Structure formats: C-alpha cells, structure tokens
C-alpha cells in the first residue's frame, strides 16, 4: 500500500457542506424567526397532521383523535410563540430607535 493513498482523506461533497450550514443556521440563536425555517416547520406539522388524520380515518381509533388534538395544540403554540417573539423584537427595535430620535431633536 502506498502512503499517499492513506494520507489524503476523500474530499467532502458540496451538499454535505450545505447540510452542515443548514443545521448550523438552525442552531444559531434567533434562527427561529428565519422564514425558511418557519416554512419547513409548517410543512412538517402539516404532513404530520395529514398522517394522523389518515390514521384516524383508517383505524377509527380514539387514540389518533387525541394525537391530532395534541398536534394541533403544539402547532398553535409554536405559531403563538413565534408571533410573540416577533412582537418583542419589534418592541425592542422601537425602544432602541426612540432614544436616538429624541437626541436628534434636542
């Protein structure tokens, strides 16, 4: 065996780097307001709802009805939390603008 073949690791593909940056983007603070992340989250919740509703239709089990209710509650709470987080960020931005505007008028 030659040493050159063992010493050079294979080059990572470009898609692996993109996946890494996607996960890095999700794990950074404040990324929950990223529109792409929110769209993916809504898609996942919608897919889960479709699966659970189809299981309710196929099985008629009351357990899946309760899982649908839990999923809807979770989806609604996530939407509410994101809306409140956006409102807080807007309030903070307005509060930071307010002192600088009062200094300009003085």
TrEMBL record:
<dbReference type="Pfam" id="PF08636">
    <property type="entry name" value="Pkr1"/>
</dbReference>
<feature type="transmembrane region" description="Helical">
    <location>
        <begin position="37"/>
        <end position="58"/>
    </location>
</feature>
<dbReference type="GO" id="GO:0005789">
    <property type="term" value="C:endoplasmic reticulum membrane"/>
</dbReference>
<protein>
    <submittedName>
        <fullName>ER protein Pkr1-domain-containing protein</fullName>
    </submittedName>
</protein>
<keyword id="KW-0812">Transmembrane</keyword>
<dbReference type="InterPro" id="IPR013945">
    <property type="entry name" value="Pkr1"/>
</dbReference>
<feature type="compositionally biased region" description="Low complexity">
    <location>
        <begin position="1"/>
        <end position="16"/>
    </location>
</feature>
<dbReference type="GO" id="GO:0070072">
    <property type="term" value="P:vacuolar proton-transporting V-type ATPase complex assembly"/>
</dbReference>
<feature type="region of interest" description="Disordered">
    <location>
        <begin position="1"/>
        <end position="22"/>
    </location>
</feature>
<keyword id="KW-1133">Transmembrane helix</keyword>
<keyword id="KW-0472">Membrane</keyword>
């Amino acid at each position: 065996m030659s040493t050159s073949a063992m010493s050079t690791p294979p080059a990572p593909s470009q898609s692996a780097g993109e996946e890494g940056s996607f996960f890095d983007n999700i794990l950074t603070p404040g990324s929950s307001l990223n529109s792409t992340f929110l769209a993916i989250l809504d898609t996942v919740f919608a897919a889960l709802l479709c699966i659970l509703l189809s299981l309710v239709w196929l099985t008629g089990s009351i357990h899946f009805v309760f899982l649908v209710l839990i999923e809807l509650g979770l989806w609604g709470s996530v939407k509410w939390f994101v809306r409140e987080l956006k409102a807080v960020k807007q309030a903070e931005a307005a509060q930071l603008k307010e002192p600088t505007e009062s200094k300009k008028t003085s």
